[in-house]
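Deliverable D5.2: sample structural annotation.
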Amino acid sequence: MTSPLSIEQILTKIGGIGRFAGRFFVKIFRPPIELKETIKQIYDVGVRSFALVAVVAIVIGAVLTMQSRPIMLKFGAEAFVPAMVAVSTLRELSPVIVSLIVAGRVAAGIGAELGSMRVTEQIDAMEVSALDPFQYLVTTRVIACMVALPLLTMYADVIALFGSAIVQKIEAGMSFRLYYNSVMNSISFVDFVPGLVKTIIFGFVIGIVGCYEGFNSRGGTEGVGRSATDAAVISSLLILIVDMFVVKITVLLFDTTK
């Protein structure tokens, strides 16, 4: 059983992640560009998350519609259910929940993979053979997460609204065309773009934390397991904290009351 981290250990970890992120921004503009490895990582992060994200998204749309419809009926505002579901999904639910789901799967996976390479000295062997393990292992995975997260979120948006439309069709008899028109008339740039932009930041958080934990893994197989767990927990916490600041900035920059 692992003991809780002390304040000093937490601050050391935060400082380490900050330096690791700074190193990423230095490396990303330097050759060689590992395009083939980056595409492979985008496939691993994105395509292999399709099924999981689809299930989560359709549940989000369906449950949100089932929960909100009775309340909207009380106020005689049933016609606004599609608009409410669409705005809630696009602005907040889909970007954050998809990112948390991917953080649990991808950050832990990266932490375990790189941690195993570290404890078996594969990363040391790459350094000895004049390869740059940071460029090949870290930069490619972080870029892959930053590219895949917005695509997965757009995919989840569509699936969630489809799940909501099915519930509206069954419970309220609303046609799919009417649901589509209601959604399109209610959403705007402010509802869609900020939600996608912040998933790029979430992707960066997932990639950098997963790589940091794996790259600095110590203590054999037990250390690898600890790195995978810490990667999932820390990236999830950072996503929620970053989201709070991004929402505040969005409110200040855009008039969200329209």
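Annotation notes: The chain has a mean pLDDT of 87. DSSP finds nine helices and no strands in the chain.
The annotation will be released with the project's public dataset once the embargo ends.
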